[in-house]
Amino acid sequence: MIEAIKKDKKTGRVTFLLKNASPALANSLRRIMIEAVPTMAIEEVEFKQNDGVLYDEVLAHRLGLLPLTTDLKGYDVRKPGDELSAKNSVRLILKAKGPCTVYAEDLKSKDPKVKPVFPKTPLVKLLKGQELEFEATAVLGVGKEHVKFSPCSSWYTFKAKVTVNNSHKEFDKFKDKYPSQIFNNGKIDAKLIEQHNLFEACEGINDEIVKIERDPSTFIFNIEPWGQLSASEILASATDHLSSLLDDFVGSLSK
Question: What's the pLDDT tens digit per position in 136-173?
């Protein structure tokens, strides 16, 4: 069972609760998000002109790491050995002449749904008279092939129950050993421990002042997207993939 907690509108990071689960399930979901949810990334670059300071190989590497918005419904994952086609790839072209700074937004995509997530990412600076022209091919791939296809960072912790006793007789003796961020008007606030994720920093100091108990079946999950897909799209794709893997496994057992 999944229960939403919060979303950071600035970064797109989503935090949610995964209940009634095991560490094996939680880690499988985390790994699938990072390794198996497909995204678009530039795979091949054909240079027609490059008078800039960056060698072709260096610039191609920079292009490969550009996050591109991804349309999962419009493309299929390109598997090893597959030829390039309209179903698994899209072309992007760029032509520029100095003096100027070339930005990611200067890439012109054949598909408006596939474009740089961060338009103002600088690619190279061209001096007067220098020219740059190339054609790049982006394909739909997965993170286990190359990290450039990975859509996010994902991590989790066990949900913790925090019990605080600010009236303990040795509170003054131990209070300086706790992080300053968890205090509110001189008292330890359990909500601040959770807000700043300082469970480990508070453990083992004095269990009679701050006691932390972890629920082994409930996880606080975090998804921080790089921009190719939203956190909800990543989670939906990951759960579908996990369900498909389990169906295949059950089918193999029945045979």
Answer: 999 999 999 999 999 999 999 899 899 999 999 999 99
Is residue 138 within 8 Å of 43, Cβ to Cβ? Answer: yes
Instruction: Express each pLDDT in 84-99 by its tens digit.
Output: 899 999 999 999 999 9
| CA nearest to 131, candidates 201, 189, 49, 72 | 49
pTM confidence score: 0.84
Structure tokens at 106: 């200067």
Query: Mean pLDDT over residues 114-119, rounded?
Result: 96
Contact indicator for 126, 52 with CB cutoff of 8 Å: yes
pLDDT (average), residues 20-26 = 93
Q: For residue 115, give every residue at least 6 positions away whose Cβ sits within 8 Å of its Cβ, in sequence order, or none.
A: 68, 69, 107, 109
**How buried is residue 211: exposed, middle or buried, by Cβ count under 10 Å (0-12/13-18/19+)?**
middle
CATH number of 39-149: 2.170.120.12
In the numeric block, which tokens belong to residue 72?
């999962």
Name the residue ranges covered by the structural domains of the chain. 2-36+153-223, 39-149
At 44, list the tokens: 């091949």
